[in-house]
């Protein structure tokens, strides 16, 4: 497996060592000048006397200027050896440090907060290449155009990395370098650590929350509190060791250090997650080239290929000790593995506080939502299963099915295709009985229940979200002014001043972006039309299969022709759905990049919107067709509707609901199985390739005890929360399946519940065992996905109303009972019409419709249409009224949480009281000094 270089060739960078060494010599000559240099983060080191191309924007593709000394240094590096001293930690007190495995420097005391990695190919291969370019007559090396470009690129990378590291040193970060090499390549690991002064400075700037007063760690699981009050044993609870403490907090202030808990313990005052978040913020702000070209940040350096990877370290191995270790002595990663990622913990509560402490709030919110949604699926699955079982139990009481089974040759049905023969309705006895499982009064009640369930779930998720946001100190979190994306900075054609920060940043004209977004929307519409074409293809495929089954002459195949065709069409449809999903995801990514969104949030939202719109049409188009359109435009004998010369599809013998249930089962469950298999296999294959590639470099060192940075570099690069949020997008599609079409498939919540139990453990295992540790990101909710959830919940109400009214036989049976009797005797005969008199081929055949002998609609049809429309209006108004009542009754923020918020604000006022007094005095207003236990006037 190739190492990640983001599309740039950084496999031949050991020539850079000489260039960097030359830079070091120049810097050493200036000695005192460097000692007196600017300590600012954003240094703009220019090299006087060397003209630069003003048309470049820092991207390698844009031809950035490279000073001649870097080119000469890169060309001569093969003749020079030695260590890259600029990257070494400044500590020379211990030349022979004791090996200290784990997350520390060689001194065993300095914590490693971040690691930068880059790879360099061996010299032997490059020297062989150079020898091929030697002119035999002249005895001199002939530079080729390709080698010249390569030298310029390597020199540019060397310059960028050198300046980046120099600026990190100016900030105050401590550094220590390690190397792992064999005859093919060398892997460099630069370990970074932030000392106390740097942490304090940036903690105040980033408004890190500081603890004021400890408070009890309350149980946030509603089910645990309910079971405790009922004195019922709770098998889902488990005591997880080393649970993070809960505090009242306020924004960190260096001047108020004495007011915060644990201020004397500099070593452990900031958590490891806070430390690497602060260091990442430094890395993201640090300039490596020209500020005016937006050559800023480690993310763009990774994209340009300067570094192969940049990541914080995991806190030790995840494997559990064999014996003799108490649970309290496990490291955080082992605790997450033991009490969360293992498959045996599938029925336990997730340790959300530990997840948040280790991975940050964004990932914790993802797992909190997935766990909360899965827990709420349990009652829906139980009710849905009971509804299905009730249908099985009452199947024998279905009067219409009995009439069909006992009809014998009484009902001669018209042919289902132009070349088919007539058939007797008694042949579909089995399908009529099975159709009752998905079309009985219980399914109607269940669809109403799921409409209420969906909105109630969202209301209580709001409360859960607010509780977690406060518990994790991110309720008032607002994303700082986001920096431009690295790709945007590299490709933006202009530079303009940011009106908020006052700093010049890359700029892309809004008019051009809107034009591109419009063009992209046309591409999206075209792709949606492709989905519709595939849908028509599947419909025609089902028709052809049905005709083939009828022409076999087998009574069994003739009877089950519709079922076989529907199942085959659903499988073909699933294959097309998965294929188009992959194609469109790649297309949507390219379109979103082309639209040039400035920030990562804007990029993510635009990409998510495109993918979800397409996936919505891709997954739901076929179920929508079966639920609301199939069988509506069939026509009648002598006047059949056609599509491309083929008769339009009719609903199968058991009705359209049983066909819809078959489609939902194949598409929903099939997709889940395929996705879970992929999630299980693909990370393991990637990890195996990564370990195998690194093992070749380690060579004989493989048997020795590995170091943490090497172990983590062997892991799969974490794609970040974006990939998991796309996984949540799949869960939202699942949410649509179990709410929009639940009237046809009561078992959908059960299959969703089983899938989510597996999904949680798969994702947990990936994050803990197979992925590098991601950079912790803050958040206060699940973002744009909640808006999509609300839209789906409202759409489900409308869809279920139409499904019950027009697809189910519930209202026709109800109206028949109201007009003619309560036992449904004669209902089957009532729903069948005779072929018109001019249908000479089979003059006495029957077909299902409310028509007279001339093919005109009967009075019952119009009465039924009025009932259906009235039901839709009444259903929607009643459900939406109840939903608004629930929204009004259930507050978004619990009352107990409001009290906690007020208490925390009061304590924050007390802690900052002296600052407020000083501010008043400085303004000349005068004030008496405040005691620690009092608040300042006017507060």
TrEMBL record:
It is found in: Cell membrane; Membrane. The chain crosses the membrane at residues 363-389, 443-461, 523-545, 565-587, 607-628, 732-754, 782-806, 859-883. Residues 104-352 form the Anoctamin dimerisation domain. It is a multi-pass membrane protein. Residues 355-904 form the Anoctamin transmembrane domain. Keywords: Cell membrane, Glycoprotein, Membrane, Transmembrane, Transmembrane helix. Residues 128-153 are annotated as: Disordered. GO terms for cellular component: plasma membrane. InterPro entries: Anoct_dimer (IPR032394), Anoctamin (IPR007632), Anoctamin_TM (IPR049452). GO terms for molecular function: chloride channel activity; protein dimerization activity. PANTHER family: ANOCTAMIN (PTHR12308:SF15). Belongs to the anoctamin family. This is Anoctamin. The lineage of its organism: Eukaryota, Metazoa, Chordata, Craniata, Vertebrata.
């Amino acid at each position: 497996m190739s190492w990640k270089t983001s599309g740039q060739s950084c496999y031949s960078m050991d020539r850079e060592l000489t260039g960097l060494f030359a830079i070091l010599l120049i810097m050493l000559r200036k000695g005192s000048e460097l000692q007196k240099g600017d300590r600012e983060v954003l240094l703009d080191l220019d090299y006087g006397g060397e003209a630069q191309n003003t048309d470049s924007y820092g991207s390698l593709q844009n031809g950035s200027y490279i000073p001649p000394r870097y080119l000469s240094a890169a060309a001569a590096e093969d003749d020079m050896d030695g260590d890259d001293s600029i990257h070494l930690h400044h500590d020379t007190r211990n030349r022979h440090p004791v090996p200290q495995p784990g997350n520390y420097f060689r001194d065993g005391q300095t914590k490693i907060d971040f690691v930068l990695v880059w790879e360099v190919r061996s010299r032997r291969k490059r020297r062989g290449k150079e020898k091929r370019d030697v002119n035999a007559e002249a005895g001199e090396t002939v530079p080729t155009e390709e080698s010249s470009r390569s030298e310029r690129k390597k020199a540019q990378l060397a310059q960028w990395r050198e300046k980046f590291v120099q600026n990190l040193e100016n900030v105050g970060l401590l550094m220590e370098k390690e190397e792992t090499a064999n005859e093919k390549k060398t892997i460099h690991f630069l370990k970074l650590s932030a000392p106390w002064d740097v942490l304090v400075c940036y903690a105040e700037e980033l408004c890190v929350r500081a603890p004021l007063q400890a408070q009890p760690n309350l149980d946030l699981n509603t089910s645990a509190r309910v079971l405790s009050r009922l004195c019922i044993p709770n098998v889902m609870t488990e005591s997880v060791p080393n649970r993070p403490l809960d505090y009242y907090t306020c924004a960190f202030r260096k001047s108020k250090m004495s007011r915060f808990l644990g201020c004397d313990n500099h070593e452990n005052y900031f958590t490891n997650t806070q430390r690497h978040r602060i260091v990442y913020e430094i890395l993201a702000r640090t300039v490596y080239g020209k500020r005016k070209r937006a050559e800023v940040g480690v993310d763009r350096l990774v994209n340009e290929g300067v570094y192969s990877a940049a990541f914080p370290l995991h806190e030790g191995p995840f494997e559990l000790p064999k014996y003799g270790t108490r649970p309290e002595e496990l490291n955080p990663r082992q605790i997450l593995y033991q009490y969360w990622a293992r498959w045996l913990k599938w029925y336990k509560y997730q340790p959300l506080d530990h997840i948040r402490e280790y991975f940050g709030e964004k990932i914790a919110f993802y797992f909190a939502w997935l766990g909360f949604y899965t827990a709420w699926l349990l009652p829906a699955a139980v009710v849905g299963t009971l509804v299905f079982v009730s249908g099985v139990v009452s199947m024998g009481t279905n009067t219409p099915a009995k009439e069909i089974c006992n009809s014998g040759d009484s009902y001669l049905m018209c042919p289902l295709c132009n070349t088919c023969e007539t058939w007797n309705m008694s042949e579909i006895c089995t399908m009529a009985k099975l159709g009752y499982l998905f079309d009985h009064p219980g399914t109607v009640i269940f669809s109403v229940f799921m409409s209420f369930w969906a909105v109630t779930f969202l209301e209580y998720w709001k409360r859960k979200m607010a509780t977690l946001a406060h518990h994790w100190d991110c309720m008032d979190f607002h994303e700082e002014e986001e920096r431009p994306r690295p790709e945007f900075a590299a490709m933006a054609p202009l530079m303009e001043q940011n009106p908020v920060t006052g700093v010049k940043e890359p700029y892309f004209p809004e008019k051009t972006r809107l034009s591109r977004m419009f063009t992209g929307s046309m591409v999206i519409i075209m792709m949606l039309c492709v989905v519709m074409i595939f849908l028509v293809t599947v419909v025609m495929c089902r028709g052809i299969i049905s005709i083939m089954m009828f022409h076999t002459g087998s009574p069994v195949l003739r009877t089950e022709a519709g079922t076989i065709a529907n199942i085959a069409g659903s499988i073909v449809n699933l294959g097309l759905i998965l294929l188009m999903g992959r194609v469109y995801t790649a297309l949507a990514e390219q379109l979103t990049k082309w639209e040039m969104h400035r920030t990562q949030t804007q990029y993510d939202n635009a990409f998510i919107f495109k993918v979800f719109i397409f996936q919505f049409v891709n997954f739901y188009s076929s179920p929508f067709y079966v639920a609301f359109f199939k069988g509506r435009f069939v026509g009648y004998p002598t006047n059949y509707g056609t599509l491309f010369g083929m008769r339009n599809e009719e609903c199968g013998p058991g009705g359209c609901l049983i066909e819809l249930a078959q489609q939902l089962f194949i598409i929903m469950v099939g997709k889940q199985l395929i996705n879970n298999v992929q999630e299980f296999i693909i990370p393991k294959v990637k990890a195996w390739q990564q370990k195998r590639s690194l093992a070749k470099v380690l060579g004989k060192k493989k048997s020795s005890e590995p170091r943490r940075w090497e172990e983590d570099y062997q892991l799969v690069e974490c794609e970040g929360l974006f990939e998991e949020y796309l996984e949540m997008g799949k869960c939202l599609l699942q949410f649509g399946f179990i709410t929009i079409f639940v009237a046809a498939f009561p078992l959908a919540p059960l299959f969703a519940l089983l899938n989510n139990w597996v999904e949680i453990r798969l994702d947990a295992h990936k994050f803990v065992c197979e992925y590098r540790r991601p950079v912790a990101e803050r958040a206060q909710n699940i973002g744009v996905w909640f808006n999509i959830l609300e839209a789906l919940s409202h759409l489900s109400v409308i869809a279920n109303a139409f499904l019950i009214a027009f697809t189910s036989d519930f209202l026709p049976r109800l109206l028949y009972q109201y007009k003619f009797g309560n036992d449904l005797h004669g209902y089957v005969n009532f729903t069948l019409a005779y072929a018109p008199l001019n249908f000479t081929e089979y003059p006495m055949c029957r077909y299902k419709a409310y028509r007279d002998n001339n093919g005109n609609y009967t009075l019952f049809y119009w009465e039924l249409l009025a009932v259906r429309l009235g039901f839709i209006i009444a259903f929607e108004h009643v459900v939406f009224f109840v939903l608004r009542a629930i929204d009004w009754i259930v507050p978004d923020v619990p009352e107990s949480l409001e009290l906690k918020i007020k208490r925390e604000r009061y304590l924050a006022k007390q802690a900052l009281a002296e600052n407020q007094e000083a501010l008043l005095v400085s303004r000349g207003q005068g004030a008496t000094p405040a005691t620690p236990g009092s608040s300042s006037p006017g507060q």
